[in-house]
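It is worth pausing here to work through a concrete case rather than discussing structure prediction in the abstract. The textbook approach is simple: state the sequence, then state the predicted structure, then interpret. We follow exactly that order.
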Amino acid sequence: MSFASQNFSPEIVRALTECGYEKLTPIQAQAIPHARRGSDILANAQTGTGKTAAFSLPIIQQILEKPKSRGRFNVRALILAPTRELAAQIAQNIAEYTKYTDLKTAAIYGGTKMSSQERTLEKGVDILVATPGRLIEHVDLKNVSLANIEFLVFDEADRMLDMGFITDMRKVMGEVNTNPQIMMFSATSSKQMNALASDILRKPKRIMVDRENTTADTVSHVVYPVDQERKRELLSELIGKKNWKQVLVFVNYKETANELVKELKKDGIKAVLCHGDKAQSARRRALDEFKEGKARVMVATEVAARGLDIQALPHVVNFDMPFLAEDYVHRIGRTGRAGLKGHAISFVSKEEELTLVQVEQLIGQRIHRVQLLGYEPANRDAFVQKMNTKAAFKDRKGRTNNPTEQQSSSERRVRLRQAIKGKAKITTLKK
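Step two, the predicted structure:
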């Protein structure tokens, strides 16, 4: 099915053609018709499947069909994303889709000056892409009004909940006085996200492209058992011996990232950093160097797991296994995109065996183990056998998202819908 068959305006079709878009992806084929009809949507699809076009193109088309003059501080469509990188990527994509229209798109997120964002917002925008925290700052300062929005999108909604943005998400809903079309997109599912969807969506169309919490078929998975203190050495050896040219490496802590980059450089491997302590401009430069091949490795914390669009990225390495099994899906979603082959490599110490078990249960497959000669972990088999005899190991669940409110689902639904209509304010959770 082609984009030209979806009755988009000639301006949109022209832009999509220049972007190289031809056939709709499965998520686009299922979501676009429902979104064009104005239905609320709850969609689960693995990362890298074209979700941005799935929710943004119908919004763009509907705005073009009902042109309005921009009011000061006014917004017609709001798209919320959990990270700066994802917000910037979404805004860039939408700018490409609307290049032959007069629609105005803006992105606001932390790490950039409030004053420049304020000037942009004052003139009014058609489509605003924002991270929750920075948006609330502007709302509190009266720099933007959400009262009349017509479209609201929560992209990577599961990640926003896991990052603690539930309060901000509910506050956003409380600022809306209309009944906007609402779409929630995510790669994974959770009880809390489903409860939130039940609260705010009106008879949503449920779309599931793949089994929830699955990974792309184009990604091959492998695990290297190794002691924690030998992971850096193993990474350098694999990069050198296998001649990996472009490797995105995930770690759990900023300190680990800093140290790893230093050690890789000592081994003659050019590496760059991407984590929360780095300024937005520094993170952007690091990503550009990595994309352009000036750096062979980019070491990142979870902040980079969403929103990074690196074409044909061949290798993602979990230097540390993620704290939350679902984050494995998000991390490796940076490779194997658009039908291309990708490789997900995980270094697993004996202390991380529990996480590995949880990941395998989540994705529904056993990951192939490779024991590299000279890197055999000490006493691993004895440790695993011992842990498997304990119920706490076998039955333990991964870390959950934020706890749900102590209200019943029906109570939450009533209060949220009232808030949307401007009849009541929402009592938000305390941080």
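Step three, interpretation. The first helix runs from residue 10 to 19. The CA atoms of residues 176 and 420 lie 5 Å apart.
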